[in-house]
Amino acid sequence: MEFTTTARVLRGVGGLYLIRLADGAAHSEKYPDTPSPLAGRSVLCRARGSIRGGGKLMVGDLVTVKYTDASFELSGGTAVPCDDAAGLPNTAIESILPRKNALIRPPLANLDFIFILCASAAPAPAPETIDKLLSVAEYHGIEAALIIGKNELDGEKAAELESVYTRAGYSVFSLSCVTGEGIERLEKFVSTALVGKISAFAGASGVGKSTLMSRLFPSLALETGEISRRTERGKHTTRTAELFPISVGDGEGFLADTPGFSLVDFENFDFLPFSALPSTMREFAPYLGKCQYDDCTHTKDQGCAVLRAVENGDIAPSRHESYLSMYRVLKAKKSWEKK
Question: Which of these, 163, 172, 167, lies nearest to 284 by C-alpha position?
Fold first, then answer.
């Protein structure tokens, strides 16, 4: 018998994909009249040679999958995947469903949420780096939040950053993994905001990302180890983007582990066209279209509503300085680099 369902691509190595099949509720919503014996399972499979709907598969893709009753065996009345080193020959990815977004670097599709981490000190926060990542998120339709860690080291700086980004319209969490301050508030937010979502944590080395993630997702180490063992193809496997199922609230989400979410190499990162930059600054929105001139660049133009908002204290000067920096870099790019 043949079964059809949807699945999420968790990892791909050498043409072999680890996928998470839709759970019972999600499957029934799309295919109400057919069963899925492996609902909610993670299995290995390959893709059809003529895959439809998007060309090359990416981690994070939502796909349609077909498998047969030869792809599993019954153990105590429960369907158990028959996976082996060659994958599941009777299971195949048929097509790619429409993507919400698709990032080139890191290569990841359908990212819903990104937490940008910085520290109040050691290392000192870099507002321009934070703002570049926020612009990346805005352009790609990714919701973002800022986490200010190590607030026990410099409470004044943590409060300053919290004020700037709260005013800009973002969720901000000031916390300390040492004292525990602010952790509970973030845990409550994660338990509701990330259900059914793909999320990522981005931060420079030393900001405490690993410590915080271990606190938020204590079972993550076991899950990542299990998945890695099932998909490891040798000691020299190239490390690419990967999704790990995580328990959040009463449901499940996916956490992206990718080597590309530490820092953005803005000089070489083709993340948005020049013309889109103003719309990636969330707090600019009320003033766009209200400048004296239609072609206002919001840099030094007469009658600029954005500049007036900066002068009035409605837009933080540091945010506008980041805008000017990004503006100069994007303006200097060659025409073919701005596409």
Answer: 167
- Give the tens place of pLDDT for each residue, 227-276: 444 444 333 334 578 999 999 988 899 999 866 565 444 444 556 788 89
Which of 325, 326, 319, 308 minimizes the C-alpha distance to 167? 319
In the chain the domains, ranked by start, together with CATH numbers, are 2-98 (2.40.50.140), 108-257 (3.40.50.300), 272-337 (1.10.40.50)
253 beta partners: 246
**Of the candidates 59, 50, 152, which has an alpha carbon nearest to the alpha carbon of residue 109?**
59
**Is the Cβ–Cβ distance between 19 and 65 less than 8 Å?**
yes
Q: Which amino acid, one-letter code, is at 7? A: A
